[in-house]
Amino acid sequence: MFETSGPWTVPVRAPAPAQATIANAFARQGRSLHTGRNAAVRVSPAEAGTGIVFRRRLRNGLAITVPALWPARVSQPLCTALQASDGTLVRTVEHLLAALSALAIDNALVEIDGEELPIFDGSAAPWCAAIRDVGRTELAAPRRMIRVRRTVEVRDGRRSLRIEPAPSLSIAASLSLAHFGEMRWQGAITPETFQRDLAPSRSFGRLKWALPTKLYAYATGRPLLRGANLSTTAAIFGNRVIGGMRVPDEPVRHRILDLVGDLSLAGHPILGHVTAAHTGHELNHALVAKLMRDASAWDFV
Question: GO CC: one term (predicted)?
């Protein structure tokens, strides 16, 4: 953009994008994937600079707060979990975080009365619908974004994840499953592409592994896949998804959905191109931690 005054042409910097929050609060409830318990969630607007913050209400009346930031992340099976300084957990946060991030919501307070967010149908579509229903409102503060300055990569056997400089967030991912071959998706992560191509994709698993895992969880008392069933996951049996895929190559698209949510734990939108092969939560978090710990690999814009 240029502004002309007399014989000179003076460059004028475009205004920085503004931070945003949801326009009104919304509440949802449902059964959780791993604990199998019902949970009630309320997502409320928050002021600029808050970020995404979870607040878990305990039975003794206390409320424990934990920010959705990578240092608070702890390893838990088959989900993304955050842990407060006193050890309180909030987990399976990745689908809500992905929806908030892709729909450009920078600040929100998420209150929950249990350990785990509802899984709904296994996708991020219900969260996107809730955010659309209440709307988005911009705040009087500029949006800071993380610009990747050089390539950062993590690997674990055949699994790999790489991020490199790019003007916006884009992802190219591949995943190979027995009887399905290689599945791929690539594109820019925008509110439109996320809601159309990625949000409908569901958590998935093979029945031959899920059923023994559920039995083991009940026998040992571990909260693992207790809420998994044909209405909360895409169940794979042999060479097909029971009931069919919602979108082409649904499993790889869901891995990207999870990746968008995990990347949001950097605390600000990321400008970079991600290449992913067979990635999952552990590798996603390894990449975020490696990127954020290397101050020479990124800067704020």
Answer: membrane
Token pair belonging to 94: 């990745």
Find out whether 95 is annotated in a ligand binding site: yes
36 SS3 class: coil
18-300 CATH:
3.30.1700.10
Question: What pLDDT shows up at residue 3?
Answer: 40
Q: Which residues pair with 31 in a beta bridge?
A: 38
State how far the Cα of 81 lies from the Cα of 88, in Å rounded to an integer. Answer: 10
* Prediction pTM value: 0.93
The one-letter amino acid code at 84 reads A
> Rounded distance, CA 301 to CA 44, Å?
27
β partners of residue 38: 31
Which of the residues 34, 268, 281, 285 is marked catalytic? 281
Segment 222-274, tens digit of pLDDT: 899 999 999 999 999 999 999 999 999 999 999 999 999 999 999 999 999 99
CA distances from 167 to 77, 145, 147, 280 (A): 34, 11, 8, 25
Q: Are residues 90 and 66 in contact, defined by beta-carbon separation less than 8 angstroms?
A: yes
Q: Where are the domains of the chain?
A: 18-300
Q: Is 281 part of the annotated catalytic residue set?
A: yes
CA-CA distances (angstroms) from residue 221 to 164, 225, 227?
42, 12, 14
